[in-house]
């Protein structure tokens, strides 16, 4: 049976975990805001430079050349921005997952302790029921670990696919830029 001190300690630990997760979420939001401000500043500066360059163009050939020169960096910057957002979200998600795993491991350990304690104090003749409960707990733990491994593998595959898609998009843009420069 749980004592009042154990319940209070559990609530205190849960509140600390909640505040820790909230801080991690805020850190992720801060990084996103910082990234967006940086992108906005850069975009403003580049827009001013591009406008000045466009106003100094003397003929259509020079305008086409300017346009082709702007296409590739824009695509690369968009891909880089997407990678940064993905990295921030991934890092924040990893931190939350670590805390969740630690909490689950702790709860699992405590539940196993309660089951073991109950098994020690179980009346005679209930050995089969205790063994059944222990077996069910072990099966649930194994199932959770399998799901956890599958989720980690899915995240790894998604990361690989994201990186490949980003790389392909940048290469396609580079190819299109070179083709438009040759055509001009």
TrEMBL record:
InterPro entries: Phasin, Phasin_subfam-1. Residues 5-104 form the Phasin domain. It comes from the Bacteria. NCBIfam families: phasin. This is Phasin family protein. The lineage of its organism: Bacteria, Pseudomonadati, Pseudomonadota, Betaproteobacteria, Burkholderiales.
């Amino acid at each position: 049976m749980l004592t009042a001190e154990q319940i209070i300690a559990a609530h205190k630990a849960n509140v600390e975990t909640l505040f820790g997760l909230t801080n991690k979420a805020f850190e992720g939001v801060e990084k996103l805001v910082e990234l967006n401000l940086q992108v906005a500043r850069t975009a403003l500066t580049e827009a001013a430079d591009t406008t000045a360059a466009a106003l100094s163009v003397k003929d259509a050939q020079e305008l086409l050349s300017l346009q082709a020169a702007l296409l590739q960096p824009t695509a690369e910057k968009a891909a880089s921005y997407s990678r940064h957002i993905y990295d921030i979200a991934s890092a924040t998600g990893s931190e939350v997952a670590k805390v969740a795993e630690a909490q689950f491991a702790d709860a699992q350990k405590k539940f196993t302790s309660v089951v073991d304690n109950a098994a020690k104090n179980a009346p005679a003749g209930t050995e089969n029921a205790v063994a059944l409960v222990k077996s069910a707990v072990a099966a649930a733990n194994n199932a959770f670990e399998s799901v956890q491994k599958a989720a980690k593998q899915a995240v790894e595959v998604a990361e690989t696919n994201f990186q490949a898609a980003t790389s392909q998009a940048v290469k396609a843009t580079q190819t299109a830029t070179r083709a438009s420069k040759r055509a001009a």
